[in-house]
Amino acid sequence: QVQLVESGGGLVQAGGSLRLSCAASGRTFSDYPMGWFRQAPGKEREFVAAISWLGGNTNYADSVKGRFTISRDNAKNTMYLQMNSLKPEDTAVYYCAQGRYRDYTSRSYDYWGRGTQVTVSS
Q: Is 28 helix (H, G, I), strand (E, B) or coil?
């Protein structure tokens, strides 16, 4: 049974930083691409960043490019999202998701965490 647990959210002032973590269990972490998504109140969930199963490929939404960095530590079964220069519009619940076996191209995600709240004050 796959489980994804996010942590690291909180309240931060604009311009500040946070690092989110996503701890995964249930299957061989290093075989699966991972992604971060977010959902702000009243808005649809949106893609934030993705990383391939060995970490060699990453992609970002234009809105976070240059400010956020996705990474993973396969020895620890954990993915991270380093968020710098945070803006009030980054306020959202952030979710991690796990993709399909060694399939980075399709960007299909089968498992989701419950999310962690990030609030950026102005």
A: coil
Query: By the 8 A CB rule, do 96 and 112 touch?
Result: yes
Report how far apart, in Å, the C-alpha atoms of 40 and of each of 1, 30, 47, 102, 117 are: 28, 30, 12, 30, 10
pLDDT by position in tens, the chain (length 122): 999 999 999 999 999 999 999 999 999 999 999 999 999 999 999 999 999 999 999 999 999 999 999 999 999 999 999 999 999 999 999 999 999 999 999 889 999 999 999 999 99
3-state secondary structure of 90: helix
How many other C-beta atoms lie within 10 A of the C-beta of residue 55?
Answer: 16
Q: Strand pairing partners for 46? A: 38
